[in-house]
Amino acid sequence: MTDQIRVAVVGANGAFGMKHLDGLKNIEGAEVTVVSATSQEKADAVAAQYGVANAVVGLEGVLERDDVDAVILATPTGLHAEQTQAVLAAGKHVQVEIPLADSLADAEATLAVAEATDRVAMVGHTRRFNPSHQLVHDKIAAGEFNVQQMDVQTYFFRRTNTNAKGEARSWTDHLLWHHAAHTVDLFAYQAGKIVQANAIQGPIHPELGIAMDMSIQLKSESGAICTLSLSFNNDGPFGTFFRYIGDTATYIARYDDLFNGKEEQIDVSHVAVSMNGIELQDREFIAAIREGRELNSSLRQVIDCYRVLGQLEEQLA
């Protein structure tokens, strides 16, 4: 291994591809050697913006290179499992954006490939790394706080195929396999293994073919419960908002910001070296490669999330 971990970002022109590029530029020991996009024009534009020497189209143009140690996949959901397996088969470390897959079978198959290699394999479950949620996690680990209930709202106004930048995209997002995955994994991370899960959904959109509204209930082995409301129909502020109701306090988390139950902001600047959850996620990825260890949000650690999603999909069917 060279002193630098040489990274390729695939899907670099998308909203989250650029978020990773923004984070990686702050990480000592990480060097982006190539970016990939769906067209050469888009790849060249991102390379020029971030000062990356090489720009290619597609994943194959990345895997054949000898100046890439690790790949970050910020590509459409339906490609995640197949592309993750391809990166591992090429002998490279991989971080794939959430979700790992859009079916349990694909998630399990990808885990099997990861466990057969010595490569680092990570899924971008960013909530594990947001300073807001990490402060709560640290208090739980110290025995200072226990979750009794989580109330979570994941709301977007997305009645067409658009990304986080408001740009049109070619694939359809999914409330269950993408957006619910964040909360299902986080609830287990904070409250323990999920032992009960229920879901209902609203009408199927006639063109997109997905439910635009969904409600999920979870219960952990600790007895804690979680209520998750999701919508693509919400014409208002978008994002995911978490309320932790515990035995000693109430916390409200909005991405990297944290408030108490009285809406007083809590300083989380001391929690980690950055206030950017994506950057912290990428720091863990690079550090685990350098140190040759399992990392937070490894495929093994998050697979239970996808097993729960699989159960919920069966209920909804």
Question: Can you offer a commentary on this structure?
Answer:
It contains nine helices and 14 strands. The strands form two sheets. It has an eight-stranded mixed sheet, covered by helices on one side. It is α/β, with parallel strands linked by helices. The model has no long low-confidence stretch (mean pLDDT about 95).
Properties at a glance:
single chain, 317 residues, alpha/beta, eight-stranded mixed beta sheet, six-stranded parallel beta sheet, 9 helices, 26% strand
Structural class: alpha/beta
Order of helices and strands: EHEHEHEHEHEHEHEEEEEEEHH
* First-last Cα distance: 47 Å
- Per DSSP, the total helix count is 9
Mean of residue pLDDT values: 95
Portion in helices: 25-40%
How much of the polypeptide forms β-strand, as a percent range? Answer: 25-35%
- pLDDT under 50 segments (min length 5)? none
Largest sheet: 8 strands, mixed
Radius of gyration: 19 Å
The largest beta-sheet arranges its strands as: 8-9-10-7-11-12-13-14
Name the shape in a single word.
Answer: globular
Number of strands: 14
Helix-strand blueprint:
Layout: E1 5-10, H1 15-24, E2 30-37, H2 40-50, E3 54-57, H3 60-63, E4 70-73, H4 80-89, E5 93-97, H5 104-115, E6 121-124, H6 131-141, E7 147-155, H7 175-191, E8 194-201, E9 213-220, E10 225-231, E11 239-246, E12 250-254, E13 257-260, E14 265-266, H8 277-291, H9 299-316
Parallel strand pairs: 1-2, 1-4, 2-3, 4-5, 5-6, 7-10
Antiparallel strand pairs: 7-11, 8-9, 9-10, 11-12, 12-13, 13-14
Helix pairs in contact: 1-8, 4-5, 5-9, 7-9
